[in-house]
Amino acid sequence: MAMTMTQKILAAHSGRESVSAGELILADLDLVLGNDITSPVAIKEFAKLGRDSVFDRDKITMVMDHFAPNKDIKAAEQCRLCRSFCAENDISHFYDVGEMGIEHALLPEKGLVTAGNVVIGADSHTCTYGALGAFSTGVGSTDMACGMATGKAWFKVPSAIKIVLTGSLRRYVSGKDVILRIIGEIGVDGALYRSMEFTGPGLASLTMADRLCIANMAIEAGAKNGIFEVDGTTLDYIRTHGGAEPVIYKADEDADYDEVLTVDLSETEPTVAFPHLPENARIFAEIGDVKIDQVVIGSCTNGRLEDLIAAAEIMKGRKAAKNVRVIVIPATQRVYLEAMEMGLLKTFIEFGAVVSTPTCGPCLGGYMGILAAGERAVATTNRNFVGRMGHPESEVYLASPATAAASAVTGRITSPWEVAEL
Amino acid sequence: MKYNGNAIKYGDNVDTDVIIPARYLNTSDHKELAGHCMEDLDKTFVSRVKQGDMIVAGLNFGCGSSREHAPIAIKASGVSLVIAKSFARIFYRNAINIGLAIVECPAAAEDISEGDTVEADLDNGIIRDITTGKEYKTAPFPEFVQKIIENGGLMQSVTNGVI
Fold this sequence. Notes:
The complex is a heterodimer of chains A (422) and B (163).
Chain A: H1 5-12, E1 24-28, E2 31-35, H2 39-48, E3 60-63, H3 73-88, E4 93-95, H4 103-109, E5 118-121, E6 135-138, H5 141-150, E7 152-156, E8 160-166, H6 175-186, E9 195-199, H7 208-216, E10 225-228, H8 232-240, E11 259-264, E12 271-273, E13 281-283, E14 294-297, H9 299-302, H10 305-315, E15 325-328, H11 333-341, H12 344-351, E16 353-355, E17 376-379, E18 395-398, H13 401-410, H14 416-421
Chain B: E1 2-9, H1 16-19, H2 30-34, H3 45-48, E2 54-57, H4 69-76, E3 81-84, H5 89-98, E4 101-104, H6 106-111, E5 117-121, E6 126-129, E7 134-137, H7 143-150, H8 154-159
Parallel strand pairs in B: 1-2, 2-3, 3-4
Antiparallel strand pairs in B: 1-5, 5-6, 6-7
């Protein structure tokens, strides 16, 4: 029976020769992830089982990133609960303030995920690790609790959409533009319950930062997971970040796909998703004069070093438009340090931006850049739902780091192509 | 299981950020979460929802964040059942895992109006709109999912040795 890449990984993790779409399976987990918001609920559920220990202390990770450094007393209590649980259970990979980063930037960087893994995380953007050739998906806190106790999770084996990438990206166009364009095409439930499998000759031109960004937003099309075929770029990344030995699964030539979508990277343009859904994607020919109040560059989608480099390239020697607040958030401590060593932080500060410690903060309207009623932000984050970054009457426009930086220069939503020509 | 209540109706793509805004995620207290349920979509929900009421919604209900606080808030509000044209997958499994009753039924979700009295018998796969007299058939849950539901959720299934 021919299988997709995802199906092969799931078969191998459920002790079967093959699985087919629609089957329900129990899969063995290589890693279980939680954060400071979702873990407290999981810890309470886990306690109900009355077990002495977790299934494997090396295969559980908790990252304090959403409301940490603690934004208020309640957030502090939640982090404390996670901290004591991890101490009591001797969890190997607990990341607190000082060594933490935004979870989906941190785990690949720490080499905690490798190709062929099955990973669940109590965070919807856990699908990010598909960029490393892993089956990785977001779940809730109860699934996390069950995973911590048993090392297993139940899944309905998904069918898939094959996305064939051709060509290569033009200057100032990135993975973010690609995924916004795809979501614009198939809609926020276009891949509901299914895998998005990325392959094709265009793959070779995409950096790991591009791939991580694309896989990260598979959930915004409703997908169960986004996954990239493993190539030399993937293997180099896993090796240089100290990941475990990769196991490479390749979709069968005759695997059955619900749909095949071809995306020519060289035709992709800077793209912006208008409020209040990520599917409201527009290219600049369709964008008029939209004034903005804030720019956020960061998040699990676009807070990697490559993203900061792209933003700094536009900002260098320029100044932020008057009345635009610019917030730059390196996704991890390592990204922060490297950005400092490269002089990027100086560029940001001279531009008029603030640079913050790693946190999910503003992306989900937590803290560090909440919007007032009627305010608009261009953000390199992943969701632009009603009230996502603050007041229910505020607006979020999703874009790439280059587009966000260009918009910070002019004070209106602006293509990096326009600013680069100035 | 049988359910009976009045319909509270919403559209497509109701996301978990509007079901329970992130500014309230610094707690996991069920009652506190219920106190802010649907706040950014419908400020009247908390004051008008009654024990047993049903949410009837369009496509992709519960999309976005994986926060289990969303089905918890809905369940703690007194909602007995969510009927939708389709559910986002994480919300779907979270609801099953915590024991919030949900059912996909595009025809019922389309037809049922705000305030209609609705009866559902999920064991026999029937939804009845008492107000209009119309009846709808629902597909049964897959056997494995049914087992989790019968065991009272995922953690109870683990305790009972089902998983």
